Amino acid sequence: MYELEKRNLQRFSAYITKFLRPSVIKNFMATYLDKEMVENILSMEEKSVTTAAQMLLERMYCLEEVGWFQAFLDILHASEYIGLHDAIKEWNFEELEKLNEHRRFLERIEPSITKHMKPSDLLMHMSCCLKPRECEEIKAEESQRGRMAASEKLVASLLRSDRPNWFKLLKIALDACELDEALELLETNGGGKAEKASGWDGEPEPMMTTVCFEFREEAEPEDMLMSINDTAVTEKPGEPEKSGERKLREYQNELAAAATQGQNTIICAPTGCGKTIVALAICEYHLKQFPKRAKIVFLATKVDVYAQQYKLFKEHFSCKDPSIRVTGMCGDMEQLSVRFLIENYDIVVMTAQILVNALQNAELPSLEILTLILFDECHNTTGKHPYNNIMTSYLDRKLSSGTHSLPQIVGLTASVGIGSFKNRLEAENNILQLCANLDTKTITTVNKHKDELKSYVHTPEKDFFEVQQRPSDPFIRIIKNIMANIEQLAQNTYNIESLSNIQNREYGSQKYEQWIVSVQKSCRVLQMKDADEERRICRQLYNYTEHLRKYNDALIINEDARTKDALDYLDAFFDQVRNAGYDETERKLTALYDCQRPQLQRLATEGEQNPKLDELKFILEEEYQNNDQTRTVMFVKTRALVDAMKKWIDETDSLKFLKPGVLIGKGRKSNFTGS
């Protein structure tokens, strides 16, 4: 009896064992299997759930009792194995197959993501994809063995979940709990191409070797900075004011000059000087030069900037000339046709990815349908940014065709930037590359009317303080030696140099952090013939790179804060590792640290004070002594360094009255604590 069912159970056993946990259906086993076999299966489950599930299936192939198969389906449904129940009932595992990609991805990033999770908080949002028993077990694990162990338990439960929406619910839960680092790991799944509503996330800022503090002695007068609505709004003597009409200041005329002559140009001027007013004037001139033919697109990098600029363009031209048709389009309006908007409006304000998508899907055959493109914050025209994708299409057309009618290009920026370069020649080459990317030979700045510009735009004073490095720092040498050992262990596991193109990485730099991210991304798409070997290698590489990341963070902390803070940071990390019940790889890595821990402790206690902190302490003491109403914002390189600097201020007698707050975040959300 039940020959078909038994054959199908064998046929689909690889699927079933991925999801089924025998102890959940213990009542079924107690009814149809002998007591000794049930105990053996439950005992095996403590070592390997998958092996235990396979043992159960093998016993089920021998069952002959009437009704056992229906009883199996019934208990699956009663135990909330809804997806597995439906798949076995219909012998259709397509829906479960769809979960494989998410499962494989989560398996690979497990060593990283579990270090950034808070299980007790997440469970409040994940009851729909976890069984009540699993939730209780995760809570007990956190209570008894700590957060990391509970995180591993949570991930293990998700990997065996048959709910089709568990991956989405996990992302929603991480977002709701503001666990941004964990969410970021999930959102880089497979290098997805979806545009983020919050805009483009560029590469991390380059490391700075000089301490720079900006401050001013008194508050800026309200009329010093330019207001968009009243800037350069003038009325001629004896004439009534025309609402919304703007007359450019002399320095603004100077900024618009090259563009009104039809040149491709980058307009570079300080924030607050009214570059958008200049852009409006350029659009007006262009519309007059090409009546009935002009097609203008103004591009913004982020949705909130788009909304602000669209409102300004709409208000300006509704007052200036209502016959000029202005519209806008951003990421949540993809149902609209880009080509229709361009053909039926004179000016379209949009986010850059919208135009990229229209070019890629051939909705727009080329950029030749346009006559003028303005790039707000054009310094982003590098790498894989949507701006650079647009200009690549532009340049491909220009260089591949002898005749073309490509649009004029105008970029707007407060700074052309120097990238990560540290000498004049490299900085100049970086600026030239930006010009090449935007197909311009001209950078327009204010030269003739600098005094007028200064009267409207306040530039904060800048003081640079050169600080000597510590004469010697054995802490750095020890940490770098540990990192070199870990890199060698990783290299013995897999050729990690083949997983990233980033060269010349230095320990204790943000470039090294970029290299770690690059290696981990490559691990996610690594494919090998042996799936188990692939999984083992990926897990080991994630462990190695996570430890390298922590040591790299510690070097950055030590560079700008106290050695004590760097050691505290590492201690906290290894406490988490130990509480999670680490594997053989983690044991080796922990042993490397434990071996050097006594010497590191001695250096943290007896080593020299960081000269940067001495200088910073002097600056803050002097500033607040001269003006007790001083308000300070201090920018640092990493989140870990934020905590270290706050701790240093709180523990410094002459500074702890400041009671510093903390503001961190990356695009999606910020987290503010303190006063």
Please tell me about this protein's structure.
By secondary structure, the chain is an alpha/beta fold. Helix content is 54%, strand content 7%. The chain has 29 helices and 11 strands. The protein has helices spanning 3-11, 13-19, 26-32, 35-45, 49-60, 68-78, 82-90, 94-97, 100-113, 119-123, 132-145, 147-159, 166-176, 180-187, 250-260, 275-289, 303-320, 338-344, 352-360, 386-400, 424-437, 450-456, 474-493, 510-524, 531-560, 563-579, 584-606, 611-626, 639-650; strands spanning 211-214, 265-268, 296-300, 326-329, 347-351, 372-376, 408-413, 442-444, 462-465, 662-665, 670-673. The strands form 3 sheets. The chain has a 7-stranded parallel β-sheet with strand order 4-5-3-6-7-2-8, with helices on both faces. Strands 1-9 form a two-stranded antiparallel sheet. β4, α18 and β5 form a beta-alpha-beta unit. The longest helix has 30 residues, at 531-560. It is globular. The termini are far apart.
| Rg (C-alpha, Å) | 31 Å
Major beta-sheet overview = 7 strands, parallel
What is the CA–CA distance across the termini?
73 Å
Q: What strand order characterises the main sheet?
A: 4-5-3-6-7-2-8
Please count the helical segments.
Answer: 29
Low-pLDDT windows of residues: 189-244, 667-675
Keywords: Immunity, Innate immunity, Isopeptide bond, Phosphoprotein, Ubl conjugation
InterPro entries: CARD_dom (IPR031964), DEATH-like_dom_sf (IPR011029), Helicase/UvrB_N (IPR006935), Helicase_ATP-bd (IPR014001), P-loop_NTPase (IPR027417), RIG-I-like_C (IPR041204), RLR_Helicase (IPR051363)
Pfam families: CARD_2 (PF16739), ResIII (PF04851), RIG-I_C (PF18119)
Protein name: Helicase ATP-binding domain-containing protein
